[in-house]
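Backbone-to-sequence.
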């Protein structure tokens, strides 16, 4: 008789945190709450070719153009919503529309209470606002500006904020 120890991972076990400190100094990574959609598409770039002496085409992945579609119900006194809504409402451009986001896998917490994390800079590409009649809804897409940086996250406040450490680094970036 075999025992299956695997468990399904719920969507709520992968959470995102955004740097809400736009000033110089230590970043503050706050949990991205109130989001009804946050779906990532890797959008791989392929190099496909068929050689004359082969019957089958070959494909290789040679790059990615990742993006994450998002939608959130606008809440007051929520720094993440304040920043994203300002980018949207004031039609910010270039670096003024960039945000740092960390994705944390809570399901993989180790014995030291560290969770694997990926950090990346995204451009906020606004789409729509005002959808629905019950809540003010904003939507758009986060499009990758940088490559991924692997590390880990820890939290001292029940995962409302995180401290991020890059892989191989000895210091922490507070959140």
């Amino acid at each position: 008789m075999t025992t299956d120890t695997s468990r399904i991972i719920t969507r709520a076990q992968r959470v995102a945190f955004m740097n809400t400190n736009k000033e110089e100094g230590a970043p503050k990574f706050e949990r991205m709450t109130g989001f009804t959609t946050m779906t990532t598409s890797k959008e791989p770039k392929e190099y496909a070719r068929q050689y004359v002496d082969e019957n089958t085409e070959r494909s290789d992945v040679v790059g990615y153009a990742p993006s994450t579609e998002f939608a959130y119900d606008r809440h007051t006194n929520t720094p993440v919503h304040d920043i994203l809504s300002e980018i949207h409402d004031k039609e910010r451009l270039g670096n003024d529309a960039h945000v740092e986001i960390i994705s944390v896998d809570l399901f993989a917490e180790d014995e030291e209470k560290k969770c694997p994390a990926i950090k990346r800079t995204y451009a906020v590409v606004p789409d729509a606002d005002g959808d629905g009649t019950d809540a003010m809804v904003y939507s758009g897409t986060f499009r990758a500006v940088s490559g991924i940086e692997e590390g880990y996250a820890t939290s001292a406040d029940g995962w409302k904020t995180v401290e991020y450490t890059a892989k191989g680094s000895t210091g922490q970036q507070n959140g």
